[in-house]
Amino acid sequence: MEALPELYAIFQGEVATVTEYGAFIKIPGCRKQGLVHRTHMSSCRVDKPSEIVDVGDKVWVKLIGKEMKDDKLKLSLSMKVVNQGTGKDLDPNNVSLDQDERKKRTFRDYTSQKITLEAVLNTVCKKCGCKGHFAKECFVQPGGTKYTLIPEEEEEEVTAAEYGRDKKTSAAEDSSKKRKK
């Protein structure tokens, strides 16, 4: 096995090929190449890596990742954490690399899940008149917006049915009053 640089080591390599997603850099002292993804070429957005580097250019890079995939060692490199003029490490504690890694993590989508409240206090607030909390926990301002709990689906159907029934009876009462006059 060839001697590879240590993780987070800085060295100067030569650009072997440039693709639409980054550039492959020859690692000195071995036959391996590492990829500088276009997101790691500059702190600014890079749309075309060919605008940043050309084949044969010497660039300073930092080894930021080693990964075994399908019995092949894949090396990830970064140019944006190294000063291209002097080769000085701009991120000696690897803080920006950790931040980049956190940004890549995917989060679960919870929007489709229904939120249900497990328990509601059987109280009425003396300040706002809403159910489920005490006056000392009430955040409503005088004359401000009042918040109430959202009724369950069954309760909504029952109240809608009752509202419809009330409308029908009031309409019947109105028509009987008109006939009497």
Automatic annotation (TrEMBL):
GO terms for molecular function: RNA binding; zinc ion binding. Its main location: nucleus. InterPro entries: NA-bd_OB-fold (IPR012340), S1_domain (IPR003029), ZCCHC17_S1 (IPR047913), Znf_CCHC (IPR001878). The keyword Metal-binding applies. PROSITE patterns: S1, ZF_CCHC. Residues 163-181 have a biased composition (Basic and acidic residues). Keywords: Acetylation, Metal-binding, Nucleus, Phosphoprotein, Ribonucleoprotein, Zinc, Zinc-finger. This is Zinc finger CCHC domain-containing protein 17. It comes from Pampusana beccarii.
